[in-house]
């Protein structure tokens, strides 16, 4: 049954024989060395073509040019080479990618996994948490931590400050501090890289990872001045390519698309309002960046970023001429979308007014997400993105982006991905459980990863899904003063269902899950549950989820203590949800409320308390404060 529902995305004769084998081997090695192609292959004999230790220039597998090394070098030198020196076969590993389109690899499939239990709450007519609880088990790998390398990252920032106009405006924030920090080895007091999320670019055979980087001038993690978006490229095996150029289709400010060779790693030129004269009690730049794929109007998968950022808007404009004009500004932290492969000229949509210093500069395209007919709130954060396959079936692409605006009371927003008005995407409610819901309180469940449409994983649509849509993801609960420090953050597994009557339901929700990932202290790594600190393990993105031989594999990205990026692989999560829960059952769905949220948060609070008690026994908590 399963394989109908699912599919996976990817003597003398002896002497003579030995002579030809050796000769063939020599010719093969010579070819591999000459072409600088990767010798490492997986068990299916599919070479990625990437060499982590060398500079790679990668053309997509759809590029209309023969995969001949000299032809590629000639093309690169004519169209993309920015230096005076001509690229040659000794300088670069250049090729058109022709490897597997799947991010799965043999080590992931055949790696070691161990059982991990989840307490999932499901809707039942009886208001009893114990009867709503369904204990399920999946398999998880040991977690891996991506290299937190800061030296190379800061050197990248130094280069971009010198060579890219989009970063010149940030120079007053850094002055000569970066050189000093590198010289004294004090980077870890000023720079923090975390909240990584990623997408697999199947035409190039690489993972594109975006991390949130915060910078503190004072050296206090509690008082950062700026947040930035840093992009790194990893191969199929999660080895970073530290010097790579990807040939990408870049859309200019006139919406014209042409290929360009883009160097990584790099900070993205995402436009944001900033003023070097004001560096106290402000926080500039894109915060909580999340990367995911959408299908654009050309039918191609394209990365998109959601984030929130401080920006400025004109709220009052008095006067009859420019010389007599008096402008009043409002300042907000709002939600934005950005496209890493699309550009805009200037940044009036985040500064509020035109500025001759930036009007001619190219930045990544951004649009503000704005609820229709609702005044801007001072702070908007933690919208959870979703894609509708009903829209894809109807329009052939993602015409709208959907967001869980509020988990409690369940509110879903629908925002347009075209026809922007003054750099703004209009968002309307696609669903509100209570039309009279009011107030800005979000509740403890929020943010986390995108909610992945299970049509992204299933090939054939099962009968139980006809007329319905389902999404699975990992929001995270933020619970205050629950027994470990100031706040605790952990992932929660969630399933959202859209019924044929267009109503949305939160049908499954787990309590906190640790995924057996060790959490360090927020200020002091060895001290947990400090009274002023959060205890944070936050789910950031689903890096991939697919099937291989009727087994589903998911890679989840998480961050610990706002300082690190982790990955963990989960095996058979979707299979378990499909066959061990009521997820696929068609039932009367009336009467849904926040009861399973209440159950899951109550159990999560118990987790927090038990965790705090365990850390105290292990002597990992701070000593008691003196009693004066």
From TrEMBL:
GO terms for biological process: cell wall organization. Keywords: Cell wall biogenesis/degradation, Glycosyltransferase, Membrane, Signal-anchor, Transferase, Transmembrane, Transmembrane helix. It is found in: Membrane. Its main location: membrane. InterPro entries: BMT1. It is a single-pass type II membrane protein. It comes from the Eukaryota. One of its GO terms (cellular component) is membrane. GO terms for molecular function: mannosyltransferase activity. Signal peptide: none annotated. The chain crosses the membrane at residues 12-33. The keyword Transmembrane helix applies. Belongs to the BMT family. This is Uncharacterized protein. It comes from Candida tenuis (strain ATCC 10573 / BCRC 21748 / CBS 615 / JCM 9827 / NBRC 10315 / NRRL Y-1498 / VKM Y-70).
